[in-house]
Design a protein that fits this description.
Length: about 210
């Protein structure tokens, strides 16, 4: 089980690093091309390089947490940053943090669930209202993310992701399963529009 969990973290590490490097190279190329003809666009591209690097550092810090205890790490601030970034992409995102995971590895999975769910909402339900809730139920931490669908538009299918890639909802299901948790996702029950993602993870008291 430990080997499988480390493999999942290694996949995430690859995904985060390769994705961030690709984005940074793209924006750096734009800055190079535009530096003389359009200095404003070049500066904007360089700002995007810095933003991509900042996002990658946050994600890498959370992946490091999944490998072992991280005393003093601010789980609440990490989740608030995700929600703030979702707002900057047009979502009406809200965070209700009723408890903080005690287990650093569980906290890392909670962060990845929220990250993936918000990323999907940006893609498939632009402008939607999104509720992120982290709460405790007995010896478990439960994270729920649900949106109300894109305003005035039909909901588009949410991709599950390919098995074993560490990407998408299927990758999340694998990570939650490795921690003996449960994971579910799908359209919200009628008449509520939109989509929901929920993970329930063991998080016993010390």
């Amino acid at each position: 089980a430990v080997g499988q969990e480390r493999l999942a973290v290694a996949r995430d590490l690859h995904d985060v690093a390769s994705g961030a490097i690709g984005v940074m190279m793209l924006h750096a190329s734009v800055a190079t091309v535009k530096r003389t003809a359009d200095p404003v666009a070049a500066r904007t591209a360089l700002d995007d390089v810095a933003a991509a690097g900042d996002a990658a550092l946050v994600q890498l810090a959370l992946l490091e947490r999944a490998l072992g205890p991280g005393p003093g790490e601010d789980h609440e601030a990490a989740l608030e940053l995700l929600v703030a970034r979702a707002r900057s992409h047009g979502l009406d995102a809200r965070l209700e943090l009723l408890d903080v995971p005690r287990d650093p590895a569980a906290a890392g999975v909670v962060w990845r669930v929220v990250h993936e769910a918000l990323t999907n909402a940006v893609k498939h339900a632009p402008g939607a209202r999104v509720e992120v809730r982290v709460a405790r139920q007995d010896e478990h931490v439960v994270v729920t993310v649900h949106d109300d669908g894109a305003p005035g538009a039909e909901q588009t299918p949410r991709a599950a992701g390919a098995p074993g890639t560490g990407l998408g909802l299927r990758g999340l299901a694998e990570q939650v399963d490795l921690r003996s948790g449960t994971f579910r996702h799908g359209p919200r029950a009628a008449p509520s529009p939109g989509f929901m993602v929920e993970a329930r993870l063991p998080d016993p008291a010390e």
